[in-house]
């Protein structure tokens, strides 16, 4: 082999760094509300199809090429009702979260944007629209990133400092994110439980991994059926991490979708989990930007720390 293998299958290995979370926390828990409703594929946005892949009826009976009003309504529930329920649950407990914000979706709901600002939740850019970036040409993707930043700057009053695509990035995404220059981290990876540095096009860049494991999207795939399913699964994940965290603390990312967990029979499982982990004294429930900033302070990049030499063609 003449070319270096473009993947890192080893990572931190057997002895990862002790993250030194604030307060001696055993686990850093970050809740992420994915704000996507209003930016998904739709006829009003000229896509020629209605997005139903992550709604209550993922296999739409509406023929291809026709507008699925029922599917649209399932998404609208998220922004009309689910959003406010999730916000109330976190406000009642005075807990922070991160919003993975599709810029166009938030632009279309000024009251939600204002509520997020007032609550102090941080924004991680989830793209201009909720579409697959790996389907975009490089110049298209560059333009989508620009549109997203400009939109969130106007809607939220400040630019986003984190980045995360729908599902996964293209081979150009990280190059474009680093090229843009204003992002402190991206979360376009699922391969670890601690942040790590990469060297992208010769520039150090921080990755704060995300997770689809402790993610409420499993309701849409039939893996979670009840609030008890959800609560038990997240509790087991947390309990294992908390036990290991006595000597090796980690982070736990919990993805939330307004059109899923925002329904009462599911939201009660989220409320139970929040109450459960708040009963532990060595847990840091925090925003994603604070994890990134903590890592940058505690483990500033030094040559040789990078785990992946390059992502891209």
TrEMBL record:
One Pfam match: Polysacc_deac_1
PROSITE patterns per the UniProt record, alphabetical: NODB (PS51677)
Alphabetical list of InterPro entries matching this protein: Glyco_hydro/deAcase_b/a-brl, NODB_dom, PuuE
Disordered as annotated region, ranges: 42-69
SUPFAM superfamilies for this protein: Glycoside hydrolase/deacetylase (SSF88713)
Residues of the NodB homology domain: 69-286
Gene3D superfamilies the UniProt entry points to: Glycoside hydrolase/deacetylase (3.20.20.370)
Protein family membership: Belongs to the polysaccharide deacetylase family.
Protein purpose: Is involved in generating a small heat-stable compound (Nod), an acylated oligomer of N-acetylglucosamine, that stimulates mitosis in various plant protoplasts.
Protein name: Chitooligosaccharide deacetylase
Upper classification of the organism: Bacteria, Pseudomonadati, Pseudomonadota, Alphaproteobacteria, Acetobacterales
